[in-house]
Amino acid sequence: MKIIRHFEEIEARSFSGDQVKGVAGRVAIGAADGAANFCMRLFTVEPGGHTPRHSHDWEHEILVHEGKGQVFRDGSWNDIERGSVIFIPPNEEHQLRNNDTTPFVFACLIPQGAPEL
């Protein structure tokens, strides 16, 4: 069993570049913990930041933990906020962005075999 008192205790990896801006990612539970089926990741997106627009062969499940943002789906942006739940099927183009003034935090589950970060 693994218990973390607060997700910010987990070391973050920062992402910024041509396709991603102001994102910090953390692996909360993954292969190193003996998780054989899923990986739980936590992302913090700073105001004005965004994940890359992309698609891949696996699904994800997302829970917005804090803040507000938008998710790109089917060619348009959809508002999301604390408590929103999102299912992204395999091979669907998607992106998340923070269009607010406070940090946007979400948990993302992915299956075993997908890159943890």
Question: What features would you describe in this structure?
Answer:
By secondary structure, this protein is mainly β. Helices cover 0% and strands 50% of the residues. The protein contains no helices and nine strands. It has a six-stranded antiparallel β-sheet with strand order 1-2-3-9-4-7, with no helix packed on it. Strand 5 and strand 6 (76-81) form a beta hairpin.
Which key phrases capture this entry?
globular, 6-stranded antiparallel sheet, mainly beta, 117 residues
Number of strands: 9
Give the low-pLDDT segments.
none
Q: Look at the helices and sheets and give the structural class.
A: mainly beta
Spatial order of strands in the largest sheet: 1-2-3-9-4-7
Cα radius of gyration in angstroms: 14 Å
- Biggest sheet record: 6 strands, antiparallel
Proportion in β-strands: over 45%
Series of H and E elements: EEEEEEEEE
Q: Identify the quaternary structure here.
A: single chain
* Number of separate helices: 0
Percentage of residues in helical conformation:
under 10%
**Chain-averaged pLDDT:** 96
Q: Assign an overall shape.
A: globular
Spatial separation of the terminal alpha carbons:
22 Å
